[in-house]
TrEMBL record:
Parts of the chain that traverse the membrane: 245-263
Organism: Paralimibaculum aggregatum
UniProt keyword annotations, A-Z: Membrane, Signal, Transmembrane, Transmembrane helix
Protein name: DUF1194 domain-containing protein
Superkingdom: Bacteria
Length: 274
């Protein structure tokens, strides 16, 4: 029988429909279990100059290449898996957020260094106003679709200034915690008067959350290494006294010592705070 165009189209539709039905019937791929899902929100607002952007970005690169940070990630003591999932996001004004490096599994020193290289390969997409609340709103839904499961979901906000645009930072923080995020920690660069207190009141949230300061963009990387080790190991920065960091380069703004293990839960419980 000669197959006409109409017959061929109908035949293809039948096959495609059958394939789609079969695919829907397949079990969903299991999420990868890790110790922590960590989302890094880096401020690139207009107050951050080109040289300061480079220093801040390099701070993240150096941190994930650091042997002590890598050891903290890979530590399997206390029943830990020795792996985390990390996402790196640039943010500025109310409508300016970009996933620079998407969710990445770090389960080896090589994987950590590869993530560092990915960060190094990014470029600045924009600058403008300062809207950390909008950045938090942007980031929260990305936990639900990242194909990872963890006992802890943490957002890490960097910046050198208080909010001057966008969603209320404290309201966004509270909504994120209500949606299932465990902690929001902050790292700020000193300069703006009262910025530490502002981060403490508006950014920091959740059990054992903390804020840490860097004296400048040139010390940001050292402060970040300390911060990452602290949040990954479940301690406060003041407990890691072995880190060779000058005393003025960091300041703990609240937060309780110790991280209580509350059992693994499915990260799909996280919902869009909107």
């Amino acid at each position: 029988m000669r197959m006409t165009f109409a017959n061929a189209a109908g035949w293809r539709g039948t096959i495609y429909g059958a394939v789609a039905t079969a695919m829907l019937a397949l079990p969903a791929q299991a999420a990868t279990t890790v110790d922590m899902e960590l989302q890094l929100l880096m401020d690139i607002s207009g107050s951050v100059s080109s040289s300061e952007f480079t220093l801040q970005r390099q701070g993240y690169v150096d941190a994930f290449n650091d042997p002590q940070v890598q050891a903290a990630i890979l530590d399997t003591s206390g029943g830990d898996i020795g792996a985390i999932a990390v996402q790196f996001i640039y943010w500025s004004g109310a409508g300016s957020q970009e996933i620079a490096v998407d969710w990445t599994l770090i389960d080896s020193a090589a994987a950590a260094s590869a993530f560092a290289s990915d960060i190094a390969g990014t470029s600045r997409p924009f600058n403008g106003s300062t809207a950390p609340g909008s950045a938090i709103d942007f980031g929260v839904p990305l936990f639900a679709s990242n194909d990872f499961d963890a006992a802890e979901q943490v957002i890490d906000v960097s910046g050198d200034g208080a909010q001057n645009e966008g969603a209320s930072t404290s309201a966004s923080r509270d909504a994120a915690l209500a949606a299932g995020i465990d902690r929001i920690n902050g790292i700020y660069v000193e300069g703006e008067v009262g910025l530490g207190a502002w981060y403490d009141a508006n950014i920091k949230g959740g059990t054992d959350a903390f804020v840490i300061a860097a004296t400048g963009f040139d010390t940001f990387g050292d402060a970040l290494k300390l911060k990452l080790r602290s949040e990954i190991q479940g301690t406060t920065p003041g407990q890691l006294g072995d880190v060779p960091l000058p005393a003025p380069a960091f300041m703990l703004i609240g937060g309780l010592a110790g991280l209580a293990f509350v059992g693994r839960r499915r990260k799909k419980a996280i919902t869009d705070p909107a």
